[in-house]
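Example record used in the benchmark description.
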Amino acid sequence: MKRPSFIDGRGYCVLALAGITSMLLPRALTPPTAMAAAAPPEIHVIGVVRDFKSAHVDFNVTPSAGYGHYASNIALSLAADQRPTFVGVGRKVITQWLESNGYPIAPHLYLEAVGGGGGGSGTVPLVNGPSIIDGAEVDTYDCSGPYDPGTAGPEPTYETGVPMPAVTVPGGLTNVGTYEKTSGVHTISSDFRCDEMIVKDGAIVQISGNRRIVVDDKFALSNYGKIRLLAGATLEIYAKKDFKVENHGLLNANTAKPSLVTLYCVASGIEFYIQDDSEVYANIIAPNTEMRVQNGAHVYGSFTGKDLHLQNDAQLHICSGGGGGVPAQVCGVDANDTLGATGVSSSGGVDSASSFDEWYHDVPGTNIALAHTFTLVRNDTGVYEYLTDAFHPIDDRLWGNEGAAHNYLFTFTFKATFVYNACSDQFFEFEGADDAWFFVNNELAMDLGGVIPGTPQYVPIDRLTLIDGETYEAVFFYAQRQDHTSVFRLRTNIELTTVTPVPTTAAYD
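Model output (structure tokens):
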């Protein structure tokens, strides 16, 4: 359903004239997106402003490629101290990534059509012939869409005596020791190497971005443990020893798209089991060992390996085509996103990771922090709004205006919690003068970097792979880095509860 937005009727430009505010107000939302009648009429958002002097290297600067929107300069996950991390691998955005209704979204939230995985050949390359016994079944299917037993094809062709591919295990990854999760929801947003990777007892591990994981010893996904992929994510697992998915373990079952996961079992003589009603959606390469699928387990995708053994009602579903692709779905509706494009590589006017680290930390002599509250007002359609083209929270305070009409150079951040209501069209939307990032559950949801980016950005909360009814923390980071435009326009139908900020440093003033 298309909801009115900042962009309706006026493109992506930032309008900085306070006198025409009435022209910028979005049209009313339709009833399904409105908040409940009992929702509060106002939400008081408490955050922290940090004032900077004009001499700071990141303020009053022009990025190398000029003013505009720069994406991917910030890590996809918050650091341990709940601050964003500058990685400096971004690019200037030339055209925006758009979701189904035409609203700009962060590039990494883009959902593309999914075609066939595993080559789509409908063949299984093996060294030795397969063993399929005790009610086990193998068929083929068009993996451009979900598996349907009613339209599944015949058993695949087994090509035996085939030379196996060589597998190169990525080097240079940080070893984190044992990665073990036994409850809760966790997100992996960086590549790593580990001694053991264990996900069990209902724990959920989410994959963010394009990830590589090397497991030196044992991989175990069991007892209703789940590994899920967030929007736009892919996963490569390199298992150097035993690999087991058992007792209702689920690997990539949330997307059901085998093309998104590649599993390499690289050792010989190891235990490689998928069993006990587990489900795996992946392209699997095991050149030196036997894959055993048994006891009601299901594997979808492709298999290339030394030996294949299926028994006790296990099922193997081999991809046999699907080059055209089908749209990804969110809440049962086709995404139909529009691909954007980036231009030159640029830091977006940030000097270094060290200088960026000062933006949201208290650094005596460099910045001064002060609590600031603004009010989101609920309109008659149930959307909370704070819309201003003159955001000046610290005029004539802290470091002062430094001879300008306003105190322009500052950052602002707030932290809040909210309850996720699945498939209820919850959203968060922001348009500002300069950089803005929004994190939910420690994961980046809005990537609006740059000086005067010139566009709003919209976060459809249903794309963030959250759990219905759970409470999540959201953190918003903003920077005002130039001295002539100060737009700050926020809209959401999420009922935010502000988390009280830590003590500030105004005493340094």
